[in-house]
Structures are given as C-alpha cells and as structure tokens.
Amino acid sequence: MSITSDTTAPLKGLDKFYIGGEWVTPSSSSTISVIEPATEQVYYQVPEAQNADVERAVTAARTAFDEGPWPKLTHAQRAEFLRAIGAAVRERADDVTQVWPRESGIVHGAAQAMIGGVPDAYDFYAGLAETFAFEEAATPTAGGRYGLISREPVGVVGAIIPWNAPMTLIAYKLAPALLAGCTVVLKASPEAPGAPYIMADIAEKIGLPAGVLNVLTADREVSESLVRDPRVDKIAFTGSTVAGRRIASILGERIGRYTLELGGKSAAVILDDMDLAEAAASLSGAECFLSGQVCSSLTRIVVPRRRHDELADALAGTFSQVKLGDPFAPGVQMGPLAMERQRDRVEGYIAQGVSEGAKLVTGGGRPKDLDRGWFIEPTVFANVDNSWKIAQEEIFGPVLSVIPADDEEDAIRIANDTIYGLNAAVFTHDADRARAVGDRLRAGTVGHNGFRTDFGIGFGGFKQSGIGREGGVDGLLPYLENKTMIFEEKPSRFPG
Fold it and tell me: Any catalytic annotation for residue 261?
C-alpha cells in the first residue's frame, strides 16, 4: 500500500527568516527540504541559516533587550501579549495539526489532542504576572535597614528545539522567557520548522515588539554559533544528551546560563500485585505516541522474574495489534518514524538486541503492507539484561525491553542503573507501595500505573537527563536573575 499527499504547507514566509520584527532575506541561497515521513516526498523548503543570519538574529534580540521597550514593560503588560499569543495559537490549531504529522509522523488525532494544551501554557505564565513574587522584601543581615530581592530577566535567550513536539516545547521556553522580560532567538529544527514559522507569523500578527522573537532554521554546525555568541545570556535546549554535553561545555567556557532537557531510558517497575494485561495495554498504548520518539518513553519494563514470560506475551499481544499507516487515516494508531536516518538507527538497535541474545517476541522489521514511508513494526524484546545496549542507550523508537528482576529491591536497583533519570512509573494497585517505590527511583517524574508527564507541574530529569525544569512555576526561574538591593531608607516603590 502506498500513501500519497499533495497538501501545501499552511505556512507564511517560507523563503525568509523572521528577524527584528520583519521577514528578511537570508544571507545565502542554501535551503533545507522538509520530507514527509509517510510518503518520502518533499513537503516544503525553508532557507538554511548561515553564521551571518544567526549573527543578525542575535543582534536584533540584543538590541531589543538593551534598547527596546520590552524589558521596561510591566509583567502585567507582557502578560497581555502572552494571552494574545495563546489566543492566536488556538486559531492556528488546524494548521499546526496539518503540519506536525507531515514533519514527524505523529497520528493526526494525537496531534489534535496535544495542541489543545499549548495555549494553556501561555495563559498560565500570563497568570503568574499577578501571583509570582518578582520583588520580595528581605531582612538585611550585614548592614542597612531594608533588603530587597528583585528577580530580573536573564537577557537574550537562545531557544533550541527538536523536531518531535515543537509547538509544545516552544511554549514552555517562550512563555516564561517573555513573561520574565527576555528576548528570544528561536532556532528551529531542520526536520520540523513549521511550528516556529507559525509562531513568527503570530508574533507579527499580535504586534510583538521588534526583536523580541526572532526565528530561523539551522543545522548543528551553524547552531553552535548561537551557543558561542557572548551576547546570548542563556540557552534553553531540548534534545539529545550528546548535544547537551556539547552545549554545556561551550557555555562553561563563558559561564553562560542554560537549561537542558535531554534524553531518557525510563523504567516501568511492575510490582507483583499488578494485573499484567492492564499494564501491557497501558505501556504499548503510550509507546504508540509519536512512534516512540519521545524522550520520556517507558522503554525498560522491569518485572518479577516469575511473571516475566507472562508480561512479555501480553506486551507482544497488544503491541502486535497496533495498526500502522497514514497518520491521517481513520483507525491508524501509529505513524512512521520521522526520518530515514531515524529508522536506520532503530533498525541498528534491533539488530544489536538480537546479537546480544535478547528474545524478539514481536516486531523487529518493516511492515510488509507499507511500501513507502519510514515505518517500523512495534517491537518487544524479552529476557533483556540491563547492561545490554538496548537497555542502556536511548533508541527513540517503538522498542520495549522486558527485564526480569529477582525481587522488589532488585527491580529498584535495575531501574536506577542508568545514566538517565527523566521518567519512571510504578505499576501496582497499592498507592502506598507506589509511593514507597517511587520515592527511591532517581527520576524527574514518577507515574502511577502509566506513562505520566506534566509540564503544568514541571518537567525535567535527574542525572544526564538534564539540568533545570520546564513548565510550572519552576520553569520561570531559569529566565530570571536574582538581584539583592539594600537600602538605608525605605524607597517609595517597595513590596509589602
């Protein structure tokens, strides 16, 4: 079966960059082709930024921060822009959900469900204008009578986002940055620049001051110039741990600020009282989202040894029934992987798992009824040793490893035996046991009986899964610098 598409991308300015409040001509004729993963056809093209374009964008952001009106506005005034952005995102929801599946392979229905929460992020941070203590009185301890903590914008932010969920990840960088008073250079992924282009169009529509948001698309080498530029005060990055290490090392040279939301190899710990059919349905269903191309996916399934075979069979039963195909077709549960190199990567790990001695219980190949598109079958390995590559390295595809544990203590040890610590889950019908085991898991999020992450509360990882948090009140803090002020007399403008 072949999948065809002749849809035109609903995007503006595809031959330009959005810099300094204007759609500007790129410095070169170099372009990037965005390939639709279900058809392997070119969907649209955008210009590829060069160092000169990045320099121009940083200059615009720096000028807007140092000389423009944006940082001088009150938080309440900036909140009105955030609400306008949220309203505009709601208006463009259909466009987003047309583009997203054609860039990353997400099923259209899942995209529709996800986009609904994006405007809420802008509204949430707008609400913090009234409730967050941007200024706070403090008692001096070394002289002076009146102390003040003033939380001020960190400055120019370079926001670097990946291709898998761009609209959501933009929101949880852009919204807190704008509320704080920062200006932003948004660097789009070459595989999925659609959401950033929509955000540029929205910025122009709502009259965001020039230079507050600047948007361009660049590959890794040119993107590094954004990280290296000393005029950029902070980098907010979501992507691989390998790239995160590189960014942190560069910023360490100049003491640049950063938040890093990186990779994961998250464990689901199945306790001995859990209904295995229920667990299997939950785990395989969650792994269908974005074809497993999610950093917080629960891909290491740790189960009591005596129940291992039963769970492996249950996962094989549910996962093998997943319907693959056109992300826009009714009834399809999982689309393709986002790009050819991603499918090559997943196939390489599947081959590695077989060579290491894992038992392949379902999947492992390309679906025979789809002759085009970067599809891969949902795959389950059983009898996996936690030291093997398929259990230690992030695959970023629909591949589950079932790992036997001797007892609960051994299960906790296995779950924590990883360089990552992004997400985890405990499957049990006893909430107290879930809490007790969850307390001992070294992960930024622990869910009960399912894959659960919540940017509304806060999201981020332990260990090499990242530094800092995105979402919630904690997601605002990295965009602020604390200034301590001490006075002999009380100023007229003083909190309390």
Answer: yes
